[in-house]
Write a structure and sequence with these properties.
DNA polymerase, domain 1; 8 strands; about 45% helix; globular
Length: about 230
């Protein structure tokens, strides 16, 4: 496969571009506190993120004993209110990400973000961390579009970026992301610095696993890559 033909990169957000775990952890536990429920642990939060806010709330409620979801509607409403104010709390780009994005942009790549984070919050977080000149399109979760790993968002974003599956690489940190990219028929790179461990990522068979932003950049910008280099 001639990787020199890539012109478009679609990135996951949480755990890929930014370490956002504390923002979600704090928001969930402020929600639990308002409901008079125990707190979840940071490791539980790490496992629960990636599939959208509803999933995060459901799994958090189960973890603190509300297995019948009696508090779900109230928790969902409270979390949305709290997260609006805390979504940028202690969120920082992973090492080398800012430089990677600037380099890709300077080479003429179209850059997009596809996240299961609510759309307004995804835009808020990206704007806070990177400004408005790096990414050509940011797409978060909306009620009228199925969330990842459904590939609908990938196709919609490709249309906005004027890209094709053949010209695009998808980058994410979770099993959800690997499944998203593969279902969309796009070369899929998993990153090992996010919210999932390398063993889980390997089991999903991404086309490549990157262990740092510098290596990710070298791989994307290489003139050629060989599918046999896939790490399985």
């Amino acid at each position: 496969m001639n990787c020199g033909k890539w012109t478009t990169c679609i990135f996951d957000l949480d755990g890929t571009l930014l370490d956002t775990l504390k923002s979600m952890y704090v928001s969930v536990n402020k929600t639990m506190d308002r409901l008079g429920l125990p707190a979840i642990t940071i490791d539980e939060c790490r496992r629960f993120v990636g599939c959208g806010a509803d999933y995060l709330i459901r799994e958090s409620l189960k973890a603190v004993g509300d297995v019948e979801m009696t508090c779900f509607n109230d928790a969902k409403r409270m979390y949305a209110e709290i997260f609006r104010d805390y979504c940028t709390y202690d969120t920082i780009p992973y090492k080398g990400i800012t430089e990677l994005l600037g380099n890709l942009k300077s080479k003429g790549f179209k850059l997009g973000v596809l996240s299961n984070k609510p759309h307004e919050r995804a835009n808020q977080v990206i704007l806070n961390a990177f400004g408005d000149e790096i990414f050509d399109a940011v797409m978060g979760q909306c009620d009228d579009r199925p969330r990842k790993p459904d590939p609908a968002g990938v196709y919609e974003l490709l249309g906005m970026l004027k890209g094709t599956p053949e010209s695009c690489v998808y980058i994410g940190d979770s099993e959800i992301d690997v499944r998203t990219g593969r279902r969309a028929g796009i070369f899929t790179i998993a990153v090992s610095w996010g919210f999932r461990d390398r063993m889980l990522l390997t089991a999903e068979h991404p086309d490549f696993i990157a262990d740092n932003a510098e290596g990710l950049g070298r791989y994307i910008l290489a003139d050629h890559c060989i599918l046999e280099s896939r790490e399985e």
